[in-house]
Amino acid sequence: MLLDQVLNSKKSGMLALKLARWLPVPAGDWLSVKIGDYLSSKRDLPMVQATRINQWVVKGANIDDKKFDSVVRETLINYVKSMYYLFHYWDNVEELEKFLRYSPESEIIIDRHKEKREGTMVVFMHSCNFDVSLRGALRRGLNGLALSLPEANEAIEWQHSLRERSGLEIKPASIAVLREAAERLKAGEAVVTGLDRPLPESKYRPNFFGRPTPLPVHYIYLAIKAEVPVAILTSIRAPDGKFNILASELIRMEKLENRSGEIIYNAEKVLAVAEEFIKLAPTQWTVLHPLWPEEAANLPK
Fold first, then answer.
1. CB atoms < 10 A from the CB of 273, how many?
2. Which terminus of the chain is more solvent-facing, meaning fewer CB atoms within 10 Å of its CB: N or C?
């Protein structure tokens, strides 16, 4: 079963979930390495192409072919392992919690909405699996409205159903839902969304790792409209096997006269912080869509 099938098919995803629950951790670790090895050899797979492009940019586009291949391999192994741990403990969150370690900053972000003094726009990164940090934050009490991309398929809807079972309220980011999200932020609630999955149709191209990138900016619009800060939540797996749940400090939005310039300027403030998180463990950051597709021609052959 290929990872792209798991990500794009409800049936395959359910099968992977059942397999991961049954498979003990040593066997799961071993199988993750084997799957990562196999995937890294399949350069024509869209998810592998995306991983190669994204790591090429993050690594500075100046490493030799052999070393680059090892970077891609390590990235895919890390992703498969994080997915295995997430699925293995999905219905045993108390056991998953033993693998999670929260930074003081992350505890502040998770807890600060409880008194509803000020809303928070919380954005999650795809480092060490988006759902690891999200699952941990939900377990600790983060709740609020989650904004998803408008388009969906059966696999995405199935993934959303799993997240909703964990207590997350998910709505597609339509105009009406964005209006609702702004009101809830003004009322002191948290609103949650993703940070780093590209939107090719977006008219905004904030710089990310020194290159214009079609990343979502709806969270910036909401933070400015509701006059609330943005905070990043992410996770990095430590050498001891635990997942460190990390968070940024509160990132305050700045008002500018030019609306487009205001969106780009504040998005780049947030993305600059995201870059520093990625640099802590580049091969644990895995967005399975190309952020810089124009770099495909420059990759090592």
1. 16
2. C
Cα 55 from Cα 45, distance rounded (Å): 15
**Residue 61 carries which DSSP code?**
S
Q: Is the pLDDT of residue 207 over 50?
A: yes
Task: Return the structure tokens found at 72.
Answer: 């891609």
Distance, CA of 254 to chain centre: 25
Residues 6+ apart with CB under 8 A from 151: none
Whole-angstrom distance, CA of residue 88 vs CA of residue 267: 35
Name the maximum alpha-carbon separation found in the chain: 57
Residue 297, φ and ψ in degrees, nearest 5: -70, -15
Tell me the Cα Rg of the chain: 19
pLDDT of residue 1: 44
- The pTM score is 0.90
Tell me how far apart the alpha carbons of residues 284 and 81 are, in angstroms, rounded to a whole number. 10
